[in-house]
Amino acid sequence: MRKPRCxxxxxxxxxxxxxxxxxxxxxxxxxxxAIAGVMTGAVVTAVALALAGMMRRVGMxxxxxxxxxxxxxxxxxxxxxxxxxxxxxxxxxxxxNTMTGRLQNHDRLRRDLMAxxxxxxxxxxxxxxxxxxxxxxxxxxxxxxxxxxLLEETRVxxxxxxxxxxxxxxxSGALKLQKELTDLAGLARxxxxxxxxxxxxxxxxxEVDAPADLAPLAIDxxxxxxxxxxLLTNALxxxxxxxxxxxxxxxxxxxxxxxxxxxxxxxxxxxxxxRAFDRFHKGxxxxxxxxxxxxxxxxxxAHGGEIHASSEPGRGTAMTFTLPRDPPQ
Length: 329
Prior knowledge:
alpha+beta, 7 strands, two-stranded antiparallel sheet, single chain, 5-stranded mixed sheet
């Protein structure tokens, strides 16, 4: 329910209008008194009217901004002001409209995030509750298999909470990177090795292509490994048996390093590429939380780098991220 708009009788706008008219009157009387001895009454009147008109052109737009500010303070982020008056006042109104637009967008994102988080947390909790009730009622046998499935649901819940924590820290700028000189090619080989068993079970070939002369890079190895793990998880998930997933590294402009994780999976449409890094966005039949690529983007950005996706339906997907050697402060 939208909060009621604040009318012209609000204290802030009423005070500002009275102040503007008082200032106009004082200025008019002062100028009139100063020039009364040398100017005729008609000229004094004309000057007073001109000054009053000038104050009206400035005071009324400022009063509108004050009234709109009251509405924003009351929680109405949809308010906008008309951009009119002198150039400086128009610039103020334009900046105010930009600010309220961003506030409105951030408020919408906050509401959407809360709804998405509630939905994602509800799923494992509902499964756990149902299984526990079934164990207590005797519907399920109290054996190791049932306990193992319950334990796996707690791990899903734990991973989701940790993903949300990482995403929150990185997007708020509060994530502390523990940088050290790291062999990025060696880091990629370690990440690929972690998926060797799964790739063999899926009959998917894994490979790393990196030149031997890549210089070490000052990065947080734990966080960059998390980026690689998220990208490799997605690539393996969408690659059919007999396909391949490759990690290729090259020197990037500016002495950085570019990393491409490419698969031979089903690919994505242009619409799916646009939403690939959105929070909780999942592809068809994806069992993940929909946070992996969002976290990857945030962690790469925290290092001063960039990440993007390229794909065609039926021809696989390539996720490319670049880490600069000297990230901007």
